[in-house]
Automatic annotation (TrEMBL), chain A:
Organism domain of life: Bacteria
This protein's name: Fumarate reductase subunit D
Phylogenetic classification of the source organism: Bacteria, Pseudomonadati, Pseudomonadota, Betaproteobacteria, Rhodocyclales
Pfam family name, one: Fumarate_red_D
Keyword Cell membrane recorded: yes
Species of provenance: Rhodocyclus tenuis
Record GO cellular component, one term: membrane
Swiss-Prot/TrEMBL GO biological process terms: fumarate metabolic process
TM segment ranges: 21-51, 71-88, 108-128
Record keywords, A-Z: Cell membrane, Membrane, Transmembrane, Transmembrane helix
TrEMBL record, chain B:
Cofactor(s), names only, from the UniProt record: [4Fe-4S] cluster; [2Fe-2S] cluster; [3Fe-4S] cluster
Oxidoreductase is among the record's keywords: yes
Name of the protein described by the UniProt record: Succinate dehydrogenase iron-sulfur subunit
Keywords: 2Fe-2S, 3Fe-4S, 4Fe-4S, Iron, Iron-sulfur, Metal-binding, Oxidoreductase, Tricarboxylic acid cycle
Pfam families noted in UniProt: Fer2_3, Fer4_10
GO BP term (any one): tricarboxylic acid cycle
Lineage start: Bacteria, Pseudomonadati, Pseudomonadota, Betaproteobacteria, Rhodocyclales
Automatic annotation (TrEMBL), chain C:
Residue spans crossing the bilayer: 51-70, 90-107, 128-151
Transmembrane recorded as keyword: yes
Membrane in keyword set: yes
A Pfam family assignment: Fumarate_red_C
Protein name, UniProt field: Fumarate reductase subunit C
Cellular component GO terms held in the UniProt record: membrane
InterPro entries: Fumarate_red_C (IPR003510), SQR/QFR_C/D (IPR034804)
Keywords of the record: Cell membrane, Membrane, Transmembrane, Transmembrane helix
Lineage, top ranks: Bacteria, Pseudomonadati, Pseudomonadota, Betaproteobacteria, Rhodocyclales
Amino acid sequence: MNHSANPRRPAQTRRSPEPIFWALFGAGGMLSALIAPMLVLITGIAVPLGLLLPADAMSYHNMLALAQNPLGKAILLAVVALFFWHAAHRIFHSLHDLGIDAGNGARLIFYGAAFLATLAAAGALLLLGF
Amino acid sequence: MSTNEKTIEIEVLRYRPEQDAAPFPQTYVVPYSDDMSVLQGLQYIKDQLDGTLSFRWSCRQAICGSCGVMIDGIPKLSCKSFLRDYAGKGRVRVEALANFPIERDLVIVMDSFVEKLESIKPYIIPKEPRPLSAGEYLQTPAQLDAYAQYSSCINCLLCYAACPQVGLSPDFVGPAALALLFRYNSDSRDGGAAQRMPVVGAESGAFHCTAVGYCSEVCPKGVDPASAVNQAKGASVREYFMGFLGKGGGK
Amino acid sequence: MSASDPRPAAPRAAPALPGVAGNPRRPYVRPMAGWWLRNPYFVRYMAREGTAVFVAAYALILLVGLVRLAQGEAAWNGWLEALRSPLSTILHLVFLAVFVFHTVTWFEVLPKTMPPLLVGGKRVAQSAITAGAIAVAAAASLALFGIVWGLTR
């Protein structure tokens, strides 16, 4: 039942690393709560089906222009990275909720995945140039 | 008792450590009237049917915090819950508060809570020594309002029974203790926030909370521990990123 | 307590082990397995937490899109084509429903995470904060749609 990652010292005296992850979780949760439904509607339904928005709204040239614009870059990186950090934190805690003893190994897997996704998104955006 | 008296079945989760390997349900048929609380039903059992039944109670008026139990699976004060509200089904289930070890029948082991309560220093720590001659502290209504709701806690532990994180991680400081921590940190007379914030930021601290929110739903005193715990998290995040400045707690 | 108190001393609050001589205490710890099925409130909580899996899946689709975009026009068009498949449309409809639930539940928690909001010296009800935040999300979504519509028509 003891979930503690480090059994050497009692949990009451070890500082939790959670503030960093909780802040990223909160930022991603807030951003997704504000715009994720509309973003899905645009990228996954309206544009692919040509409803409400023109079917070529996400053409290569439009998206290249968005991804090469500094503000566009920042928005794309924020959406992808923060959504990942939000999800990683929640899923990590859900493992604990389901009774799976999720210690530092699980932390490494989930936060590591979010970190790699952030790197991949940043790398793609850098490759796309300015 | 007269023959036309109404009755209800009270199913109690019994546990007698000296003879039972595990808890088991035992049902009693109890005559009741519309003004009878679940606690009075338990008292009827103890006085008239089975003197071996153990449960805690004291004030019978929702202020001592002793009589918390699970009633049909929901943490409630048994003195503030009425048998008439369960009459429709003809039976009501009573069990010791969830997330605590059972000492006997409806009595829980609450030592861990007392330790957690002590750890948050639940008393005003003055900012500087203050002689009696300096007179009383003065507070504006707004300063009082910053903590008043959290000071209504009666330590009944319903919020602990409502919190899955307490059950999953027995180390977790938990809702009531963190609400009281936040209550003192939010008090304009208090200067002890720096001593209390390490409890919030520890591995056993506020970040165990996943904002389930059920603690605030079951609180019989309107304390809203979920809001205190999550505001304490925010304070801990600010403190974390600002370094150990010794500033924390709500303002 | 008087010295002549005939009651035996209370046992020290140590976790007694079964069979320890002289100590009849044997606290019983109930299992947690399946805890979230015991109360509809917890079922809703787990559904709320479960939205994260869908957020991760959508973020992964977007990340793949970014990588495909960086790989050039043909790769990007392949990604766009995949989005037009019926399976993708169904998946995104599921995302849409789940994300609306995420928005509502996120803003239900919001008032618990902030200091009381005072208007005219009175606390704004938590339900009003939730409703206001959902209205802000709706406005932000409309603004986002308006920007995309304005830029692409």
